[in-house]
Amino acid sequence: MTDPISSTANSSSQVPLIVEMRGIVKRFPGVLANDHVNFELQRGEIHGLLGENGAGKSTLMNVLAGLYHQEAGTILVNGEPKVFSSPRDAIKSGIGMVHQHFMLVPSQTVTENILLGLDEPRFLLRLPEYDLKIAELGERFGLKVDPCAKIWQLSVGEQQRVEILKMLYRGVDVLIMDEPTAVLAPQEIEGLFITLRAMIAQGKSVIFISHKLQEVSAIADRVSVLRRGIVTASGVSSKGVSRQELARLMVGRDVIFALDKKPGKPAGVVLNAIDVHAESDKGLPALRGISLNVRAGEIVGVAGVAGNGQSELSQVIAGMRKCIKGQVLLNGDMVSNRTTLFGIQHGMAYIPEDRTHVGSAPNLSVTDNVIMKNYRKPPISKNGLLDMKAATKLANELKSAYDIIVPNVSTPVRLLSGGNLQRVILAREISGLPTFMVAVQPTRGLDVGAIEGVHRLLLAQREAGAAVLLISEELEELLSLCDRIYVIYEGKIMGEVMVNSEKQDEALIDTIGQMMTGTPLDQIQEEEIAANG
Amino acid sequence: MDFTIILQAGIASGTVLLFATLGELFAERSGVMNLGVEGMMLIGAMSAFSTAIATGNPWLGVLVAMFFAGLISQIHAFIVITLQADQVVSGLSLTFVGTGISLVLGEGLSKAGTVSLLPNFSIPLLAQIPILGKIFFTDQSILVYVGYLFVPLAWYYINRTRPGLHLRAVGEYPSAADALGINVFRMRYFYVFVGGMLAGLAGATISLAVSPGWFSELTTGGQGWIAIGLVIFAQWDPIRAAIGAYAFGALRRLILDIQGPLLLLGFDNPFYYNPYLGFFLQMLPYLFTVFVLVIGSREAMRKRIGAPAALGNPYVRGERGK
Questions:
Q1: CA-CA distance, A113 to B169, in Å (whole number)?
Q2: Is B173 within 8 Å of A103 when comparing Cβ atoms?
Q3: Which residues of chain A have a Cβ shorter than 8 Å from any chain B Cβ?
Q4: At A1, is the pLDDT very low, low, confident or very high (cuts 50, 70, 90)?
Q5: Which residues in chain B have Cβ-Cβ distances shorter than 8 Å to A58?
Q6: For A107-160, how does the pLDDT look when each residue is reduced to its tens digit (9 = 90+)?
Q7: Least CB–CB distance from B161: residue in A62, A108, A125
Q8: What is the structure's pLDDT at A5?
Q9: Side-chain-side CA neighbours of residue B200 (13 Å)
Q10: What domains can be seen in chain A, in order of their start residue?
Q11: I want to staple B281 with a disulfide (CB 3.0 to 4.6 A). Which of A21, A379, A517, B255 is the partner?
Q12: Of A332, A315, A224, which is closest to residue A278 (Cα–Cα)?
C-alpha cells in the first residue's frame, strides 16, 4: 500500500485542531472497518470524508459521535483526550451527527423533536416559547422550517434541516453530516451548502461524509479519503487535487466515468401505464394519475426525491399493489390488479428496491433463489417434481456468466455482499428473457465496481431489445443510462425529458431539479419563454 | 324506567373501564401492549376486598390493589422488554396467571361478610344542574370524581409535559429516543407498571365501590377485555377513552336494567319475556371488543388509526446504523 497523501506542512501547524482521532481501530464480525485511522479536523473548515460504500467512513464518524466504541486509538477534542460512551457524551463535548436515516418522531412537531431528551424544559413543555427560540435559531443559520409543523408533513429536505437544528440547539461546534445529499433534489443541495457555509462563518466546523466526488470538491476545504478501512489521503486541500486522483484514491484503480452506450433504436411500446392511481401503506394517495410508456430497446428513467410514489409505482407495475384507478398494459395485456405470476408469464422482470426481502429469500441457497421464477418449466420441473440436478447446473452456469462470487451455489444468499446478491437477482430475472424490466434503485449501496456491472447488464438488456424502466434517486445514474426521463413528484409526473447521451448539460439537470421539487415542465417552459421574450 | 338513574349508575360502572383503559393506554403509548388487563383487574379487586375486610380500611385496600397489580404487571414487562418475547402471548399468560392467583387467594372471600366501602357523596352546587348534575355529581363514589380529574390530567401529561413527550417518542420511534439519551427500557417498565396500577385501581373500584364484594372471576366479568378494545376505539387518546368508557358503562347498566320492567315505552317488554334476547344484549359489548381488536390488529389499519408506531415491537439496541 502506498503512503497516504498528507496535508502540506503549512496547514496543520497553524490552524488549531478541534478534533483529532489517532490510530482508531474498529472491527465488526469478519470486517476490519477502521484500521488505525488518523483524522484531523481544523476549526472552521468543511472537511470532506470520501470513500466507497463500506470503506469505513460512517463507522469512523459513528465512533466520533459516540455511537460506537473504538477498540484502539484515542480521540482528542481541543487537545483533550475524550472517551464517549454514548451520543450524549459526544454532544456534551460539542460533537453532533446527522445520520443518513433521520432519527425523528413522525407524529411530533419540529420543536418537540428538538426538545426530546433535553433537561430543559423541566416539566411543562411551554411549546410556544420554544417554537420562537427554534425559529430564531433557524433564522440565524438560514434553516427555514416551521417549528409547529409535524415531521410527517415535512419534505425530506426540511426534515434534514430539523436534524441539523437539533444539533445546533444542543450547541455543537462540530457537525458530522452522513451522506447528506443522498436524499435531496439539486436545488435543495444548493440550499444545504449555503447553510453549511453559514455555519462555518459562525465558527462551527463540519465533516461532510460522501461518496460523490463532485460534491466534495464543491463544498469541502480539505478532503480525507478512506479505502477499506485505511486512510489513503489525509486532509489534502480540495483545490490541489484532481477528481481523477481522488477517484483513484477511493477505488484503488482508475475509474472510467463514461459508459459505452450505443445510440438507441427504440421500437414499439411494451409497457403502457394509463392514469394509474394507488394508495400508500398508510392508505393515503401515493399515485395520482401516472401515465407513462416504455418502448422496446430503450431505458426510461423515473427521477424523483425519495418517497414521491416511486416504490408504489414499481409495485403496481409488478402486480404487488392494488391499482385503484387506471391500468398498466404489458404488450397490450392488462397486468395491473392481476397476479404477479401473470406478469411473469408475460415477460416481466422485476428488480425490487428491497433486495434482501422482496428480491430474494435470504436463508435459501443461490440455486433456490435463481430458480424461483422458472421452477414451473422444464428442465427444472420434471414430471411435476423439481430436478435439483438441473437447477444446480443452471445456478452454476449463471454463477459464471454473471460473476457471482460465492464458494458454491448451495450457500444461503444472506451471506452474499450487496453486489453479489444483486447479480443473483439480475441473473434470475434476465435469464427469464424478459421483454420488460422494472428496476428500482438497482445500485443503491453497491460499490463502484458492482455499480458498473449492474449498469452494463441494464444496457445489455436495452441492446437485446427489452424495455427497461429504471426508477432511481441517483440523477447521474439516470442521465448516463436513460434515453428518456420522467420526473415524479407527489405521485404525479411533472414532465418528460429526452437525454442526449453526448453531453450532460446543466440546463437539463436544472430542469429536472425543478420538476423534482414540484414545478411541472410546461410551467418551467412558460417561464423560460417569458424570460427570453 | 328512569334513564337518569341508569346513566348515573352507568357513569359509576364506566369509571371501572376508565381506569383500566387509561392504564392500558399509558402502556401502549410507550410501545407495550398488555393483554393481561383482566388478570390484573382481578388481582386488584381481590386484594382490595380482602385488605378492606382484614383491616377495615378501604383506602388501604385501594393502595394494596394498585401495588399488587403493578407488581404482577412487571412479570409481563420483564418478559417482553428484557427478554423481548411476544407481547400477545405474554399478555394472555398474564391474564391466566392473574385470574388463577386471585381465584386461589380469594377462595372464601365471597362469604367473608361486609366491609366498609369507599364513601359516596354529592358535589354541592354542581349537583343542582338539571339532569347532568343528577347523572354526574349526585351520590357518586369518590373514585368516580377521581376519574373525572384523571382524564384531563392524563391528556395534559401526555401532550404537554416533558415526560409525556418522552413517553410518546418511546412508543413511536424508540431508537430516536435512545439516540438522545432517553432510557427506553426504563420508560417501558415504568409505564407497564402504571398500567398495572391503574388496572388494580379499576379492580378496587369494582370490589369496593361500584358492585361491592368478591364474586370470583365474575367480579370483572371480562371488562379488562373491553378496556383493551376501548384503547383502540379511543385511538390512544385519553379524552376519547373517557367518552368510550362512560358510554360502555352506561350501556352495561342499560342492558341489565332493560330486562327488568314488564312494559317498555308502553309495549310488552320483549327483553323481560324472552331471556335469550337479554343474553344477546349482554354479548354485544364483547362482540364490539372482538370487532375492534380485529381491526386494531391489522397492520394497515393500525397505521391509519394512529397506533403508536412501535406498539408490539421489542426494542433491540443497535439494530440501526450498522
A1: 8
A2: yes
A3: 28, 58, 62, 67, 86-88, 99, 101, 103-108, 112-113, 115-118, 121-125, 127, 281-283
A4: very low
A5: 321
A6: 999 999 999 988 888 888 889 999 999 999 999 888 889 999 999 888 888 899
A7: A125
A8: 59
A9: 25
A10: 5-248 (3.40.50.300), 269-347+434-532 (3.40.50.300), 358-433 (no CATH)
A11: B255
A12: A315
